[in-house]
Amino acid sequence: MTNVQADHITIGSDEWISGLKPDDADAMKLGQLDVSSLSASQAQRLWARLASWVESDQIAYYVNNSPVSSDAAYDARMRCLQALEADFPSLDTPQSPTHRVGGSFSNEFTSVRHPTRMMSLDDVFSIDELREWYQGVREDLNWPENKPLAMTSEVKIDGLALNLLYRNGVLVQGLTRGDGVTGEDITLNVRTISSIPQNLGGSPADIPEFVEIRGEVFMRFEDFDELNRQQEANGKPPFANPRNAAAGSLRQKDPHVTAQRSLSFYAHGIGRLTWGPKHPEGSHDEVVDQSQAYELYTKWGIPVSPYNRIVNSFDEILEMIDHYGKHRSEIEHALDGIVVKVEDIALQRRLGSTSRAPRWAIAYKYPPEEVNTELLNITVQVGRTGRITPVAILKPVYVAGSTVSRTTLHNPSEVKRKGILIGDTVVVRKAGDVIPELVGPVLEKRKGREDQLREFVMPQNCPSCGAKLAPAKENDKDIRCPNVESCPAQLTERIIHLASRKAFDIEHLGEQAAIALTNPEENRPESVDVYTPNMRAIIVKAGQEPVPYTPPEGTELPPIQEPVLKSEAGLFSLKIEDLKEVTAWRQVPILEETTIEGEKWRTIRRKIGDSGLWYQAPAFYNLPKFDASEASEASEASEAAEIEQESATTDDSAGVQASQETNKSTDTQPAETTQEQETAQEPAIQEPVGYLLREGQGEPGRNTLLMLEEIDKARSADLWRVLVALSIRHLGPTSARVIARRYTSLEALEHADEEELAELDGVGPEIAHSVASWFEGARQEGDWRGQILQAWKAAGVGNHTEQITKPQILEGMTIVVTGTLEHFSRDSAKESIIERGGKASGSVSKKTTYVVLGANPGSKAAKAESLNVPTLNEEQFKQLIETGNPGELSQSEEEGTEPKAQ
Ligand SMILES: [Zn+2]
Questions:
Q1: Any binding-site annotation on 465?
Q2: 264: nearest Cα among 348, 158, 399
Q3: How many whole angstroms from 593 Cα to the centroid of ligand 1?
Q4: Separation of CA 380 and ligand 1 centre (Å)
Q5: Annotated catalytic sites, by residue?
Q6: For the chain, how long is the longest CA-to-CA vector?
Q7: Does 648 belong to an annotated binding site?
Q8: What CATH class does 5-105 carry?
Q9: Residue 243: CA atoms inside 13 Å, Cβ hemisphere, count?
Q10: Which of 47, 254, 611, 857 is 20 to 30 A distant from 169 in Cα terms?
Q11: 484: CA distance to ligand 1 center in Å?
Q12: If you write DSSP's letter for every residue of 110-127 in order, what string do you get?
């Protein structure tokens, strides 16, 4: 078969390939093509085009359930793809849409290099800094004082950056920002976002050979609220804010999940733009400034923010900031600032960029959001080292993306300094993901209600063990519970700590399990009036109140339980039988029951609050299973209890973020108890009642068994983990590793010399003193620390030293890591440096060898620049730890000469 003339264009020619449209007529022409007559590069181009169409057809058909092509057109493209892959085997990769069977899709998240670097913007937090930037730009350009300098002013969307790659008008790839150099391929998910076109629209003359379109994926408030309603109805935890919801949706392996989330997109930048030989200059729309790029996007059908403005003076920028500062809530998406960009792309190029951000654009961030709420109480919390922290209990309030109900007040003098009284209306401030801060009282709200206010009095005795509280040293701001040995609250915190990822890494030993082991009477009610031995939930219909509760005649509070663990010493001898009788106090939830009519009746139960009534539930064992023929109430009761049981032991303390340490309400409470069941008939109207629970105990919970397995595994943990697990003050994983390398067993360490310890790189006098005195204490006859050591050694703990297998290629280097890295946590970055013989430092000085800059690097970046310390991006850092050399240090990177933004 020879390729025939059609519309005066030879089938299979370059022109024919780039002119193909995703319609039925063009799909049918594919049948006339003899693929063996194509050159390899023509085959590659045709394959890329067809593969993108086939892939978006597959997503439309299998994922979005709304086919866009006829079956015949789809089949024709698929056949042509298969023919191409048969003749050109290099095109036949496992990722090809020809290998996708039915509706099974999975994102590979492979790393892909951005054609041009995807920069992030520098942030400023004050008008002064913004003015400084503005003046700097004018000076750098030698811009005459009275001549207006056009800039675009844009609302900063709180979402996720996305890079869209279109080749000859066809969407070929969607990439996350990643570290700016490489991003992750999330094309399948991007294809499910309905506002992102698969094919650029508008006149063919204005379709370039290649273009990178940058923008932000976000979730509108409306869609976010709806998603959280669904999450709740399905018994899943809600998302904290629209940004988290969008991030979670975009990073799904399965595009079916992403397709069900309503995601939106606004373009705000342009990367590489190549018109190609078919578009000589003058034949297409010019892109000489930022807003012309946006105009072109609009013609192509790419959504652009409707809030963009052109500004010609600093006053106009201020006006924009002021306007959206006041009208934030009227915009459909979360915004956290205003972005200003030099409009003219030639000027952008003249200004250039630093190693991390363009000089021609800046992001002004609005100040943290503040709200008023009531200060209900101030309680105290006992920390791992006995430190007593006052905690503000707030009337729950929504601020900057999440609900806040507690926040730390740090120490008693902080309470005084802020001048707050219990009962005050207070200001709470929160910026982004930062820990909420109680700013101070609203004084005018005190008038007329002085009698309802009272001063916070720091307790004299520990709320957990009753010991007299005192500062550890004179003039210390903090006061402490000195009963380190047996204060239950301190022991609980130490157990949580030793199970965390930075110590033994014992999964399934989280906060709730630690409490049950060490302090099972936590939350024990003081009065029998709120003790409900047989009630697990109170069910009400919408609008109903629970009936008042009176305990049955003769009810008495149960006997006080002795904790299973009275010290860390008993950890490795825990047995399953020890856990059988352990119960934990739980509050009876109030569930609202709604019935939805439909083909079947559906009953949804949603937790609407806590009742103030308490019961005891087995902490480590499941409740007995009932067989299905028994009364449904009983089986519901057992389900409810299972949910409680799960939450009691699945809580993963290792994943607890710092912010949650002061905001415990977010992680200690079981997830909303929501149940859904389908029944064939209309349910009888229920009076508000509690369920009765059968007596007796069941089997150990799955998580309990896993927890014991994990504890057993911890016997062979590396020595540094053992050291961290001992909760020696000031000793963290980084120094513990250094010490463990020098003293290779617990035995050797027991007699370590303080001075010798202090000389170790990364240890220092404070840690050395703390470690030496801990072991000195342990040597005393009958000392509790000695008992821990003996018990642990008897269990085989502390004999495993991490082998130095890494080549010491960073010896003699001092490296500072700042900002957020994509592929390393702060700790893992430090570890990577230390493992290779380098020194990980927290501050930049002339002695610093390199400063590694992640996202939002802060002041250390500027310090490095002023001291002329070379800076590395994440890619270079990776290369450094692999080879001992970061590679080329020039700042020119591959940035191309094309205009780029954000
Ligand atoms: Zn205490």
A1: yes
A2: 158
A3: 42
A4: 11
A5: 156
A6: 100
A7: no
A8: mainly alpha
A9: 15
A10: 254
A11: 7
A12: -EEE-SS--PPPPEE-SH
Q: How far is the CA of 817 from the centre of ligand 1 (A)?
A: 38
Cβ–Cβ contacts within 10 Å for residue 327, how many? 11
> How far is the centre of ligand 1, averaged over its atoms, from the C-alpha of 495 (Å)?
15
In angstroms, the first-to-last Cα distance of the chain is: 50
Q: Residue 518 corresponds to which tokens in the numbers above? A: 């060490």
Partners of residue 602 on adjacent β-strands? 596, 678
Instruction: Measure the CA–CA gap between 131 and 136, rounded to whole angstroms.
Output: 8
Out of 214-228, 455-469, 570-584, 886-900, least confident range: 886-900
Cα-to-centroid distance, 599 and ligand 1 (Å): 58
Distance 485 CA to ligand 1 centre (A): 9
> Could you tell me which CATH number the domain at 123-365 has?
3.30.470.30
pTM above 0.70, yes or no: no
118-164, pLDDT tens digit by residue? 988 988 988 999 999 999 999 999 999 889 999 999 999 989 999 99
**Segments making up each domain of the chain, as ranges:** 5-105, 123-365, 379-428+438-452, 488-701, 717-794, 814-883
Architecture in CATH of 379-428+438-452:
Beta Barrel (2.40)
Q: Is 462 annotated as a binding residue?
A: yes
* Contact predicate 88/47, CB 8 Å: yes
Tokens of 23: 């319609």
Q: Please name the residues in contact with 319: beta carbons below 8 A apart, sequence gap of 6 or more.
A: 311
Spatial CB neighbours of 66, under 8 Å, sequence gap ≥ 6: 60
How many angstroms does the Cα of residue 661 sit away from the middle of ligand 1? 18
Report the C-alpha gap between 257 and 277 in whole angstroms.
41
Are the beta carbons of 791 and 570 closer than 8 angstroms?
yes
The band of 360, judged by pLDDT with boundaries at 50, 70 and 90, is very high
Q: Is 233 part of any known ligand binding site?
A: no
State yes or no: 487 annotated in a binding site.
yes
Q: Is 382 helix (H, G, I), strand (E, B) or coil?
A: strand
Q: What is the β-pairing status of strands 111-113 and 123-124?
A: unpaired
pLDDT digits (tens, 9 = 90+) for 474-513: 777 788 999 998 899 999 999 999 999 889 999 899 999 9
Q: Is 236 annotated as belonging to a binding site?
A: no
Sequence letter at residue 277: P
| 163 backbone dihedrals φ, ψ, rounded to 5° | -115, 120
Encode 64-88: b = buried (16+ Cβ within 10 Å), e = exposed: beeeebeeebbebbbebbebbbebb
Which tokens sit at 640? 């409810």
Dihedral sign (CA 725, 731, 734, 739): negative
Distance CA 155, CA 364 (A): 10
Structure tokens at 581: 């009788």
What span, in angstroms and rounded, lies between the C-alpha atoms of 738 and 743? 9
User: What's the angle, vertex CA 732, arms to CA 731 and CA 734, rounded to 5?
Assistant: 120
Was 72 annotated as part of a binding site?
yes
d(CA 84, CA 740): 59
**For residues 24-33, b (16+ Cβ closer than 10 Å) or e, as one string?**
eebbebbeeb
Instruction: For residue 87, give the 3-state DSSP assignment.
Output: helix
Q: Are the C-beta atoms of 205 and 212 separated by less than 8 Å?
A: no
Per DSSP, the three-state class of 851 is: strand
Determine how β-strand 160-167 pairs with β-strand 210-218: antiparallel
* Domain 814-883 indexed as CATH 3.50.50.60: no
Of the candidates 711, 749, 732, the one whose C-alpha atom is nearest the C-alpha of residue 504 is: 711
How many whole angstroms separate alpha carbon 815 and alpha carbon 252? Answer: 35
80 annotated binding-site participant: no
Element (H, E) at 827: helix 826-835
> Which overall architecture, per CATH, does domain 717-794 show?
Orthogonal Bundle (1.10)
| Exposed e or buried b per residue across 846-873, where buried means at least 16 C-beta atoms within 10 angstroms of its C-beta | eebbbbbbbeebeebbebbeeeebebbb
Q: What whole-number distance in Å separates Cα of residue 232 and Cα of residue 671?
A: 10
**For the chain, what percent of residues have pLDDT higher than 70?**
87
